Amino acid sequence: MGAFGLGTVLGWSSPALPAIEFDEDWGNFGDKNCTYDEDKNVCKISEKWGPSPWIGSLVALGGLLSGPVAGFCVDKFGRKTTMLISSAPFVLGWLLITYADNILMIYFGRLTTGFCAGAFSLAAPVYISETSQDDLRGLLGSGFQVMVTIGILFVYVVGDLAPWGWLSLVSGFGPLVFLVLMIFPPESPRWLISNGKYLEASEALQWLRGASCSQDVEEELNLIKKSVDEGKQGSVILKDFLAPSILKPTLIALALMLFQQLSGINAIIFYATEIFEDADSDIRPGICTIIVGVFQVLATALSSILVDRAGRKFLLIVSGAAMCLFLVLLGVFFYLKVDDPAMEENIGWLPLFSLVFFIIFFSLGFGPIPWVMMGELLPQHVKGLASALATSFNWTLVFFVTRFFNELKDAIGPEWCYWLFAIICAAGTIFVCVFVPETKGRSLDEIQRYFGAATTTNINEAQNSISK
């Protein structure tokens, strides 16, 4: 439900922005916020306030600001507690948007919901990776992204049927339900052990594994203790990140976030309705957006099943290559639309076709897997700080892509805008082939050994070798 709330924040602007831009109620907000459109006989938000880029991108700015705060909180107060703390302001942000009587209230509401969504996007993958069994970690990590896409589809459907104010009010129920449900699961056993709460950690692990007694989880608990003990290296400073065992996984996590966002995914999610309006599709833009949302949910659900079978690396390669192809096709449509307007009638189906398959393949790989691997790759003792860095970096990219997407489109043309995203997808595919390790079926300790981190197992093996 926390991921569902994140999805509603990301998808909200697509159906809401066209409705907000022309809304008769804006006439009550004062001349500085709106201008009268004689052709449509309504007030339009003035160009000074620029609703589309700012209402869309302020969410990303909020997510960016939340990174350092959430990173500190997940280490200081716990993964579960951080998410619970984020729930109340999440609801408040939606209420600000719902009852807004001026544009600044919407801006502040979007900033607040973005901040809380950013906290969830950091804390939840860490919590999932630390509470999951090794053979289910990919499935459960991808399940987070499935719920994000369901949240996006939810606001696409409700936004096509209801006014944007009601859409905002209904969206506030996601974090409210989460607040109630998350009372029951325990805190991460790994975090509890790192804070000396061994009895609570044992009880938490029993709850998570459905065990009847502490003996049933004793072996796993001891492994977690060893991992936490070897990860306790005092306070983390910038110099620590220069160690190859930390620098390599951190750079891979950052690179995956880079290629995820520079694929243009959030520009497409935020402005899907406007993209279909630009394309002059034969199908109503709102319906096209819902169709894209449906396929996004189905593909992400399929990814959650495949991620522990096909593997993370394979899915990323397939995802990147296919996204590149369908972005090229989308660019071709807009190129032909300008170069030969008569062709538009023959290929009016191409924008919906391209975006549906772009979303499908994004959802199979580059959508969920970077978040799954962020929780897997980063060493325990720097996970809070490194996760904050990766999440802030991700939201920074979201901000720049969503804020300047329309300007980029106007500057180089929509065809070159999508072709640029395609080039980045191709580069991301090559990067995965060369640098990203497969983590399917590996424990968190085994992944750290891959990067050369000293672990208890390494030390024991070395001692046994010396003794022999």
Spans where pLDDT lies below 50 across 5 or more residues: 27-32, 46-50, 455-468
Distance between the termini: 54 Å
Please summarize the sheet with the most strands: 2 strands, antiparallel
CATH top level class name? Mainly Alpha
Helical residue percent band:
over 70%
| Strand residue content | under 5%
Number of domains: 1
CATH architecture annotation name: Up-down Bundle
Strand line-up across the major sheet: 1-2
Under CATH, the topology can be stated as Growth Hormone, Chain: A
| SS content category | mainly alpha
Global mean pLDDT: 80
Outline the secondary-structure elements.
Blueprint: H1 2-21, E1 34-37, E2 42-45, H2 51-76, H3 79-98, H4 103-131, H5 137-161, H6 164-171, H7 173-181, H8 189-194, H9 198-209, H10 218-231, H11 244-261, H12 265-270, H13 272-279, H14 285-306, H15 312-339, H16 350-364, H17 369-377, H18 383-412, H19 414-435, H20 444-450, H21 456-467
Antiparallel strand pairs: 1-2
